[in-house]
Structure formats: structure tokens, C-alpha cells
Amino acid sequence: MAKKWHELALEAPEDTRHVLGISGGKDSAALAIYIKDNYPEIADKMEYFFTDTGAELQEVYDTLDLLEGYLGKSITRLGSGRDFEHWLTLHDNMLPSVRARWCTRVMKIKPFEAFVGDDSVISYVGIRADENREGYISKKSTIAAVFPFAEDGIVREDVFRMLEESVGIPAYYKWRSRSGCYFCFFQRQEEWLGLKRRHPDLFQKALEMEQNVAQRKFDWSTGVRIESGKGYTWHQSGTLEEIVKRAEERERFEKKGNQKGNSSWQEILKNEMDDDDPEDQACLICAL
Ligand code: SF4
Q1: Cα first-last separation, the chain
Q2: Is the shortest distance between the CB of 209 and ligand 1 below 6 Å?
């Protein structure tokens, strides 16, 4: 019979490193708490890290501070050494997207792989038992991933309960379904609206970035730049201004509770279905 995750952890050679990436999201925070409360011997060996893109919400830093207090250990801050704007320039002003997710590779995975080097590592991943996704699994043979929640039958409700009873639920869950960069392209339309209301300065920054690159688009057939028309946007279904306008319209519509043959509702519904589902497609090293 295959060994349980905690047996593997406890039987690992003395020089094996035990690492748990804290994303600022609910699942990784709850996993750190779960291991500390139930497997203190493993928690004693644990190294916690957070990969900071420099584009995180203040609420994420607040959660990290609370978590450090609860765990009684510091969370090592990793980074790519440069800010997002630097990497954006280096990527020819191509905003990252679902299909061109250079942000994760450069700002999250590379710093993590530098942190663990060639050491033998067990990486603890907060995928729950009620999820069907894999998370980031390194291709390095020296890194073995274990999934305590999935093995122990821990589900979403358990995660929220653990947080409520310890450090609290990260404040951004009031308006956003996940952690990660403030401009993350996995955001739903209403989350962009939430960003505009809660962090107008950050929304403005995202808007300016988009407007700076929106008129630049590479034409693959001719190899020249098109200077007019739409180029890169944060969201596949339009510019940030369009997205926020739609979210506001939807909000107004929902408040009215009017669903009778309204053509704008059809539009709204269509746009909603076009949205990426962050729960399914989230950048898992960022968002767990
Ligand atoms: S949170 Fe989003 S924008 Fe930030 S690195 Fe991950 S996928 Fe990219």
C-alpha cells in the first residue's frame, strides 16, 4: 500500500527540505495551520515561503503577518529581483495572458526553483479533496509534491473553518475569489470592478498599462506593428473600461431583478459565460 503523505514526510532523510508555499490565498494558509495543529513534528521542519511579484494587494501582506504570528515562524519572501514593469518591457510590452503566462514563469516559478536549488525537497501543496486540479508540479526530480488536504479529505468548508478559528479569512475574499497580482488576468469582470472600488490607485495603474500597450499589436503576416485598433488587453473580452462598464450594468440589472426579455441581459449573460473561471484555471503556484 502506498505510504501516506505524513509517513513520507516523517521518514524522509534528515537533509530533505520541507517547503510550503504561502500564496496569500485561503488554501495554502489553511494547510500551514493544519500541519502545525495536527503534525507539529512536520511543522517544526517546515520552511514557509511567499513569492512576491511586487504587485500583491495589501490584504495579502496583512494575511502573511497574521500567519507568521500563528505559525511562530517567518515566511521567507522570494522575488524575481525586478518589478513587473521591467519584465513587461522585456516581454515587448505583451501583457501576460492565459496563453502567454510569462509572469508565472518569471516571477513565481524561477524564484521558487532558485530557492530550493538542487536540494532534495518535499513540497506541500494545498489542493483540497473537493477539487480536481493538479497545481504546479515541478519537473525537477529532486522535488516531490505531497497533497495533505486531498489525502485527508479536507474540503472547502474545512478550510474556511480553520481560518475563521485562527488568523481569519483574507479580507479580499469579500470582493475577489483568489489571491495573486492585482492585475491578474484570471479575474472575473466583477472582480475588476471590485478592484476599481477598493483599490482605485491600482486599478488606474492597470488601466494605464493596458492603454500604453493597447495600440501596439504585432502583425504576424507582415511583421510590422499596427498602431491603431485593439492590441493587448488584460481580459479577452475587451478593455478594462469596457469590462468594468459591463460589470456595473450587470450589477444594476441584478439589483432591479428584472429578467423579462431584456436584450441587454442576453448580452450580459453571454459575456458572463465568456469569462474565465478562476477556480478552474487559476495560476496555482500563485493562487492556492
Ligand atoms: S497571479 Fe496572475 S498575473 Fe500574477 S503571476 Fe500569477 S497568473 Fe500571473
Answers
A1: 29
A2: no
